[in-house]
Amino acid sequence: MATPAIAGDAPAIDSDWILSKLAHAGPTRTSFVEVRSSPLLKSPLRVSGEYRHPDADTLVREVRAPYQETTTIHDGKASIQRGSSTRTFSLSHAPQLATLQTSFGALLRGDRQQLQSAFALDTSGVREKWKMVLTPKDAALAKQVRDISLFGRGSELRCIETRLAKGGEVQRTLLASAAASAGSGAGDAALQAICHGEAAR
Which residue among 14, 43, 91, 96 is buried most deeply as judged by most CB within 10 Å? Predict the structure, then answer.
């Protein structure tokens, strides 16, 4: 006999549920606000623009402010265009970009098997406020990236936090409605609260 649901219990989630909600059949595009911290910078660098996934094998990252730059990842290569200058290189020299393309593609297809080939997955939260942590399995990538945390609400991926292995620095990328909520004057604490789906302190 099935166990009756307890009133007030939040529906359980797992990585399969999250991936099924994130899966898209066709091209996608979403705005982003990215904040990077570094000991070399007097203040965090904040850039904004748009991610596009026109097909299963292509990822485009277009920065629109405070500078203009377009990175296209396709067919094992990355091309970075600034103005009239374009630089192209193999992803074998940039494993982080290769993993980014693979991960975004797997997320958009709801492909758990491909994600798990590169990362250990740990899921927590409820359907309206969930978190999935991706920990690299590849030793070379693990030397650069400690883990990648995805924060979402229902079918929306709202934020990605990449924690670097050296120094524990965090690169935070707010997406879609979270990016729209990140006003130009929002400080680090406010951006973190938006990313995590919490009220700003």
Answer: 91
Q: Where are the beta strands (DSSP E) in the chain?
A: 28-36, 45-55, 58-65, 69-74, 77-82, 85-90, 119-126, 129-136, 145-153, 156-164, 170-175
- Determine phi and psi for 17, rounding to 5 degrees: -65, -45
C-alpha–C-alpha distance, residues 155 and 157, integer Å: 7
Please state which CATH class domain 15-196 belongs to. Answer: mainly beta
Phi then psi dihedrals of residue 39, to 5 deg: -60, -20
Give Cα separations from 41 to 68, 173, 198 (angstroms). Answer: 20, 18, 27
Dump pLDDT digits (tens) for 84-117.
999 999 887 777 677 767 777 788 778 888 889 8
